[in-house]
Amino acid sequence: MNRLPHLAGLALAAATLAGCSPAEPTADPTAPGVDAATAESTPSRGPTESISARGNLVKKVGEPAGVTLPGQEDDPVVTFAVKDIQVDPACTSELAQAPEIGHFIVVDIEAETGSAAQFEEAFMGQDYQFNQNWWKFVDAKGTTANNIVSTPTYSCLPETEALPMEIGPAERVTGKIVLDTPSTEGTLIFDDPLSGNAWEWEVPAT
Q1: Looking at residue 47, what is its pLDDT?
Q2: At 104, phi and psi to the nearest 5?
Q3: How deeply is 10 buried, as exposed, middle or buried, from its count of CB atoms within 10 A (0-12, 13-18, 19+)?
Q4: Could you give the residue ranges of the DSSP H alpha helices within the chain?
Q5: Alpha-carbon torsion angle 161, 163, 165, 169, nearest 10
Q6: Which of 38, 86, 106, 203 is most buried by a 10 A CB count?
Q7: Which residues in 141-197 belong to E strands, given as ranges?
Q8: Which residues contact 91 (CB under 8 A, 6 or more apart)?
Q9: Which pTM was predicted?
C-alpha cells in the first residue's frame, strides 16, 4: 500500500513509512502498557498481520501499531494502541448533547512519539494527530458513512479525558476521541495521511 499524499517528495528520498518493532536499549519506546509494535506498511514483513479487503492493517483492541522510517525499524516515530472502543457510552460532560448522526463511539488511545529529528524527516516537522476527520466507519453491510464527526462529539466528555489534538515529538499521551456513527456494528478505520498508513478495528470490539 502506497498512500503518501503529504510525503510524496520525501518518498523519493526515503521510501514509504512503515510500522516497526521498537527495541531501544536506553528507553522504553512504547506507549504506557503497549507492547512492541510489529511491521506496518509492508504486509509481507509481518507474518501475523492481516490485511483487509480495503487494504488496511487489521488490528484488535490492545494490539500495538506504529510508524517508522525506512532503516529505522527499531526506533519508531510513533507507537500507539487503541486500548478500548466503547459503543453508546454515557457522556459525562456538563455540556453533553445527544448524538446527531446516531451513536457515540469512544476510542481510547495511548501513544508515544520519537525524536524531533524523526518528526522532521517523517512528517516535515508537523505534529502527529489522531484527527477525528481522519476516521471512517463502514457498517456491517459495507456502507461507508459520509461523516462521523458532529458538534456533540466535542462535548460528550470533559476536556481532561480528551486525547490531545496535536502530539509533538518525545511525548507520551493517553486520551479519548468521540465519533458519531450511524450504527453500532461495523469497522472503524484510522486513515493517516501523514504516514500513508491505515488501520482498522472491528466494532463492537472483540
Answers
A1: 45
A2: -75, 140
A3: middle
A4: 8-14, 116-123
A5: 130
A6: 203
A7: 172-181, 186-191
A8: 97, 104, 155, 156, 157
A9: 0.78
pLDDT at position 53: 95
pLDDT of residue 30: 41
pLDDT for 29 equals: 40
Which pLDDT does position 20 carry in this prediction? 40
What gap in Å lies between CA 4 and CA 196, rounded to an integer? 4
Strand order in the sheet with 57-59: 50-51, 57-59, 198-203, 186-191, 135-139
Residue with cell 506496518: 40
How far is 142 from 90, CA to CA, in rounded Å? 27
Tell me the C-alpha to C-alpha distance, in Å, between residue 68 and each of 39, 126, 147, 175: 9, 15, 29, 22
Q: What is the largest CA-CA distance in the chain?
A: 50
The 8-class DSSP code of residue 116 comes to: H
Judged on CB neighbours under 10 Å (0-12, 13-18, 19+), 118 is buried
Backbone angles phi, psi at 166, to 5 degrees: -130, 140
Low-confidence ranges of the chain (pLDDT < 50): 1-47
Q: What is the DSSP letter of 68?
A: B
Task: Encode pLDDT of 69-124 as tens digits.
Answer: 999 989 999 999 999 999 999 999 999 999 999 999 999 999 999 999 999 999 99
